[in-house]
Design brief:
The complex is a heterodimer of chains A (about 650) and B (about 250).
Chain A lengths: L19 H8 L5 H4 L3 E5 L3 H13 L2 E5 L17 E2 L11 H11 L6 H21 L24 E2 L5 H19 L2 E4 L2 E9 L2 E9 L5 E5 L2 E4 L20 H8 L4 E2 L4 E7 L22 E5 L2 H8 L13 E2 L1 H5 L9 H16 L8 E4 L1 H7 L1 H19 L8 E10 L2 E2 L12 E3 L17 H21 L13 H20 L5 H15 L6 H21 L11 H25 L23 H4 L1 E6 L8 E6 L15
Parallel strand pairs in A: 1-2, 1-9, 2-5, 9-17
Antiparallel strand pairs in A: 3-4, 6-7, 7-8, 10-16, 10-18, 11-15, 12-13, 12-14, 14-15, 18-19
Helix pairs in contact in A: 3-6, 3-13, 4-5, 5-13, 11-12, 15-16, 15-17, 16-17
Chain B lengths: L3 E10 L8 E11 L4 H14 L22 E2 L2 E2 L21 E5 L8 E3 L2 E2 L2 H8 L21 H11 L6 H5 L6 H13 L1 H4 L2 H14 L10 H5 L7 H16 L1
Parallel strand pairs in B: 1-5
Antiparallel strand pairs in B: 1-2, 3-4, 3-5, 6-7
Helix pairs in contact in B: 2-7, 3-5, 5-7, 5-9, 7-9
Classes of the chains: A alpha+beta (about 650), B alpha+beta (about 250).
Chain lengths: ~650, ~250
């Protein structure tokens, strides 16, 4: 068991910042082609990270077993990313470079990410674009036939590559096509409609997983020499989020309970431009791409009486005169205006709504207005740039955004926290790797727009295929272990017991009703503005929700599978524990940084106030038992190459 | 503006692939017209659960019209009566008070029912695995700007690439043909220089796989394109036919 003295070794290679990755690759161990055939790798997840990793590893010659929860590997939630993917190509000649992409990512993350990881991410970003183009990803092009770029929230250069408003879809389909080629050739065995339920550890190393066939309900065992998990983020802890319905944090919690540290659980990103909540039956929140902020102007009425009249349905936004509008981002942040990073934009919207200037029937909305852009560019240009987003808005809200401003409000979108990994993307359990949003690396306390796609594909195409070999090179003597081994039998038994326990409760509450209660608690107390009292309240409430779940949930014992209520109940049991972990981490971190805003720690102007002297570390939570408090370990963040500053988007 | 309606639902229930299915009728009152169609089904399922009855099984995931997981044949239309959207983006304001809404799974030889409204669409994955890709491995590719692509071609490739693989085209087709799905991928890659090298084999292999998996032939009725939630045009089928013909002539 780890103790306070356990030293966390991130295995950062020595040397200058721009030489670390090159040095690592030059000196790491490799597996020769004949041995690759003898090694099996499990990849859980088929999002950008999982699909690109599974395809790349199979191309290299490993045997890959790939699992996804959906009916097809083409559907993972990476597909919903709209805006774009960053790369330091500097095609527009506007001063971009690997260093600048690195620096802006570090700064955007409020100096809570590892310098070496972020630099590597910026370094491989260019290869991602080349790879996707070669796969036939139809990126936007200009009239000369070359790739087009646009600017994106929080950046001062145009480094974002895009495919209309469907960049995530096109990148995922690129990875899916590479994966399909390997499935067709037999190098990847694909298991769709399977859900991982545990990781199996033998002699201190990850050697397989237990997974449930969702269609038959059967629990199955799978061996591999190494296990890679790319299962996405845990935003659905909040019930309402921009994540897909099946997105969940259970794979992360399974790893955590087997000894993988959970890092920075409190760092969750609230995205400023989502369609506001409209009813208590609501099942999810829809994101409107951040790219809209390039041409849309965000405002609320300057006068409270106007805001009140709008909320009562007596006044239309178009009737409010220019001088009576408060373009609060342009007012507060003249240098970046509407393009400030997501955490800053979200908090500013909350501040205005809390002060009584919010619009919409609930008062929890602000305007995103395109009237000026339509005047400047013409409706056609606006349609070309954002047509699919405007159509989506109109279908959901039944309002025409070409004529009346959109209404938006922040929503949970992405989790920067996740399973702790070292420089090699290996967790604190040997042979267990974690990639994409599921791990904690690279984004610090806040992720910049168009960087999630970059990180997912960097991990899967260009980082893990190298680093996993450094581990597997020592595993070539290990023969395939039978899934009848006692460790597999015990893991399966524990999974079955948990399922039986949930089915035996036969209480009165549906899974969703308890999940909604958890979500509200999270949003109210562990959301955009956090404070010590609220976080303590959250922990108490989560204790009650946990008791309610384990004593009063109702999961039907359906005669036939699939049993969707059982799937949801298993996930909710983990969301409850993640919620507690988030609140605990947020309570401990007595500073504000990025997406983590503690109301007690802000500047006079209401901006996030870091305390580098006390909190310049990664919080690594170590599981010590279901009924025991987790233990906190710290990975210090030493900034060797960059000077930490107060983030300033004003000048 | 928001109002509430009372509706009657006729829903296909089927315990498993080989079980006999039948319609069951449910009444649901006070449904907000602002709710999405799937939220309406969530409300119905919560009601069924509270009555200790088995909830209806249907596929869905992103609920923003892009993952292609949701399906449903609603009142005779894949993805329901609205145009250019998936079922998850359909809202109850498209229905009126007192209306009867019939909900069925995709019905196509290529998509066997798993349970209730959920079908197995892995056949589409198998068609892609037969050749819906460019054979490049990770690494060793040229710079992204090394090969300029005319904007018009890139835009048209993107139109085709917008396909979400939901299966509405085959479900809408009286022949149960997957031609629009195959055409979208073949057309996307045929338009781009990266995909041109394997174009002949791709068209032949994907069509052969489509036939093998039990999908029917195309008779140009256009039902696929008019029901496609992403407006993938039937002109891509014309391009697929040309690609196939050229490939066959070269044999």
């Amino acid at each position: 068991m780890a103790t306070q003295e356990t030293k966390i070794d991130a295995k950062i290679p020595a040397g200058a910042l721009d030489e670390k990755w090159t040095n690592y690759k030059a000196h790491q161990k490799l597996v020769n082609p004949a041995n690759k055939r003898k090694l099996d790798i499990i990849v859980v997840g088929t999002g950008l990270a999982g699909a690109s990793a599974a395809a790349s590893l199979a191309e290299m010659g490993f045997n890959v077993l790939n699992f996804c929860i959906q009916d097809s590997p083409r559907r993972a939630h990476s597909i919903a990313a709209q805006g774009g993917i960053n790369a330091a190509k500097n095609y527009p000649n506007d001063g971009d470079s690997v260093y600048r992409l690195f620096y802006e990512t570090i700064k955007g993350g409020d100096y809570r990410a590892r310098e070496a990881n972020v630099y590597r991410l910026a370094e491989v970003s260019n290869s991602i674009i080349d790879q996707c183009v070669a796969q036939g990803v139809p990126f936007a092009r200009d009239y000369g036939g070359l790739l087009d770029n646009r600017s994106f929230g929080g950046a001062q250069v145009s480094r974002t590559f895009y495919a209309r408003g469907q960049t995530g879809q096109q990148l995922l389909l690129g990875a899916y096509s590479a994966l399909s080629r390997q499935i067709g050739s037999g190098a990847v065995k694909m298991y769709s409609r399977y859900e991982m339920l545990d990781v199996v550890i033998i002699d201190g190393r990850a050697r397989g997983i237990i997974a449930r066939n969702i269609v038959s309900g059967k629990i199955e065992r799978f061996f591999a020499h190494a296990v890679v998990v790319g299962s996405g983020g845990y935003g659905n802890t909040f019930f309402l989020s921009t994540n897909a319905m099946a997105s969940n944090g259970s794979a992360a919690m399974q790893m955590y309970r087997k000894g993988a540290y959970f890092a920075n659980p409190a760092y969750a990103q609230i995205h400023p431009t989502c369609i506001p909540v409209h009813g208590d039956y609501q099942s999810k929140l829809t994101l409107m791409s951040e790219s809209l902020r390039n041409d849309g102007r965000i405002w609320v009425p300057k006068k409270k009486e106007d805001a009140e009249a709008i909320r009562a349905g007596k006044l239309k936004p178009t009737a409010i005169k220019e001088e009576d509008r408060d373009y609060y981002l342009e007012r507060r942040y003249p240098a970046f205006g509407n393009l400030v990073p997501r955490d800053v934009a979200s908090r500013a919207a909350k501040e205005r709504c809390d002060a009584g200037y919010g619009v919409g029937s609930t008062g929890l909305a602000v305007y995103l207005d395109f009237a000026e852009a339509i005047n400047r560019l013409g409706e056609n240009v606006v349609r070309q740039r954002y047509g699919n987003l405007f159509q989506m808005y109109e279908k959901i809200v039944d309002d025409n955004p070409y004529q009346t401003p959109m209404m938006i409000y922040p929503a949970i979108h992405y989790t920067m926290g996740g399973i702790w990994v070292d420089y090699e993307l290996q967790t604190s359990v040997k042979g267990l790797f974690c990639i994409g949003e599921a791990n904690f690396s690279d984004h610090g306390a806040n992720r910049l727009g168009a960087s999630a796609l970059m990180q997912g594909l960097a991990d899967g195409y260009f980082v893990l295929p190298y680093t996993i070999q450094n581990y597997l090179a020592d595993q070539i003597q290990i023969k395939r272990i039978s899934t009848d081994a006692p460790e597999f039998v015990a893991a399966e038994k524990a999974v079955n017991e948990k399922i039986e326990k949930i089915l035996s409760i036969q209480g009165k509450r549906s899974v969703d009703s308890i999940h909604r209660e958890l979500g509200l608690t999270m949003w109210d107390f562990v959301g955009m503005g956090r404070n010590a009292d609220g976080l303590k309240t959250a922990l108490e409430k989560i204790d009650e929700i946990r008791k309610e779940f384990w004593s009063n949930v109702y999961v039907p014992k359906t005669a036939t599978n699939p049993n969707v209520e059982l799937e949801k109940a298993l996930r909710l049991s983990d969301f409850i524990e993640i919620g507690a972990l988030m609140a605990r981490d947020a309570l401990l971190r007595e500073e504000s940084c990025g997406g983590h805003f503690r109301q007690e720690h802000q500047t006079e102007e209401g901006e996030a106030l870091r305390h580098d002297d006390k909190f310049s570390y990664v919080s690594c939570w170590n599981y010590t038992g279901d009924d025991a408090a987790p233990e906190l370990l710290k990975e210090p963040l030493d900034y060797e190459f960059t000077e930490r500053k107060q983030r300033n988007y004003k000048e | 503006m928001s109002k509430e309606i009372n509706i009657k639902l006729k829903v296909w229930r089927q315990a498993g692939p080989r079980a006999k299915g039948q319609f069951e009728t449910y009444e649901l009152n006070n449904v907000s017209t602002e709710a999405s169609f799937l939220e309406m089904l969530d409300i119905l399922n919560e009601k069924l659960i509270s009555e200790r009855r088995e909830p209806i099984y249907f596929d869905h995931d992103c609920r923003e019209g892009i993952c292609g997981m949701c399906s449903l044949y609603i009142n005779g239309h894949p993805h329901g009566p609205d145009t250019e959207i998936t079922t998850c983006q359909l809202h109850m304001r498209k229905f009126h008070d007192g209306q009867t809404i019939t909900i069925e799974p995709w019905r196509s030889a290529g998509f066997p029912v798993i349970k209730d409204l959920t079908v197995d669409r892995r056949a589409y994955d198998k068609i892609i695995q037969a050749g819906g890709f460019v054979s490049v491995s990770t690494g060793g590719v040229p710079d992204g700007n090394a090969i300029p692509i005319p904007k018009k071609d890139a835009d048209e490739a993107m139109d085709a690439a917008a396909c979400i693989g939901c299966g509405a085209c085959a479900a809408a087709c009286k022949n149960g043909s997957a031609m629009l799905f195959v055409a979208a991928k073949v057309s996307q890659l045929a338009l781009l220089p990266q995909g041109k090298i394997e174009r002949k084999n791709r068209a032949k292999a994907m069509l052969a796989k489509m036939d093998e998996l039990g999908f029917g032939n195309c008779t140009n009725t256009g039902a696929c394109a008019s029901e496609c939630p992403k407006s993938v045009s039937i002109t891509h089928i014309a391009r697929l036919n040309r690609e196939y013909l050229v490939a066959k002539l070269a044999d």
